[in-house]
Amino acid sequence: MPARVKAADARGALGRALCAAALVAGVAGCAGLRSYDEELHATVNSAASGNIDAAIKTLDAANSGTKDLLYFLELGMLQRLGHRYSDSQKAWQEAAARVQPGDLPQGDAFDLLRNASSYVVNDSVRPYNGYDYEKTMLLTHMALNFLAMGDFAQARVAITQTHELESQIAEARRKEIERVEEDAKKRGAQTSFKELNGYPVETIDNPEVNALRNSYQSALSHYLAGFVYEALGEASLAAPGYRLANELQPNQPALEEALRGLDERMSRPDDGMTDVLFVVGSGLAPALQSRQFRLPVWIGTRTVLVVASFPVMVGTQFGRPPAGLAFDGGADSVSLTPLTSIDLMARRRLLDDMPGIMLRSSVRAASRAALQAGLQQAPQGGGRDSGAAALGAAVALAIAATSVVVEKADERTWRTLPAEISIARARLRPGLHTITLLGADGMRTADVNISGRYAVVDLRLLRGRLFVNAPQESAASTRRAP
Known about the structure:
482 residues, Serine Threonine Protein Phosphatase 5, Tetratricopeptide repeat, five-stranded mixed sheet, five-stranded antiparallel sheet, 13 strands, disordered N terminus
């Protein structure tokens, strides 16, 4: 159902129209028109070539002003790829300080002041609060950083914070849904994107996306929790972690075995072997691209089609995730188990957020259409009225032209996250091992030094380059297998 609005009186709206035109034009060269997808290309290209310093310089150049949450998310990941774990943790602590469980209003006045520009200009001018899956992935990757530094105790703290954050997000999302439904009802605005002509609905509304419980809980986070609690001897906490991982990613024998064999592993005497969890990330999180569609809007008794922009999820081409790992020249190997798809989590997030995006887009489209219609209505008489009518028509034309330029969907999202994450588990003797990643486009090999009773080795495949994050990684090297 198109949004229904009443055309404003031309003379009464003229002053407000001039202010609106100035506001719309004023953001034409600012962050409201930022193309985040384009910005990240050069950064990712440098990182994929192995030049982390150049990637960080490119990121800094694109964020020369005030540093926001997204900057610190990307910076921390780049530093992690460069084995700068302390710097990475500092960047992610800055990000964590900016994260709120939900983007909730604190009263009508606050909400109006903070988000009014998104009802006039576009969603890119809203404060970037991070998406739900990004918030939980932030804490999960901070835990992985601690594990790369061999600090299981601090990893446990980050994992506990992840559990708490999930509960807060669940409550925030419930309130957000209620708020959008109530606001849409009051404004008479549409919130269903399925009737948006030409929108690729299947990219976010499909069986795989709908199979997810939500957009923020991941089997990775909870399996990792089970592994860390197990390593610390806390079986009563490890079991729920493995159990929830099984629920989030069902019918995976490796996950079922982690839970089923927990008691046996906990009671096993120390035989000098290391229980190693391999976490393998592939590709990049999907991009958001702004595309324009025609949105039907009621003006008086007639319907007009107004240009409106909406985010479309675009996956990155990285090929199939690796299938397995081989050790020390192929004497032993294990299969990789798909654990978490950040690609699907991002799509589920967009699916859940589309009612709010539709609401704001409908309000913007209706307001602009009504303003232009009111200004273009010539008042009766001559003299000043005729002059006002001419000026009103000119302002309406300017608003229409500028609106097409600034009508842009929000493309911001944490791109350097992996698209897909798999795991494998193996018992290895302490010491230097040659790990070979078996991928569809060839093999990648790394030398990793394993020690302790439990260890986590994180492997990241980014456009053919293998990054290794593991304890004592100063002794690790990576290369393409012959």
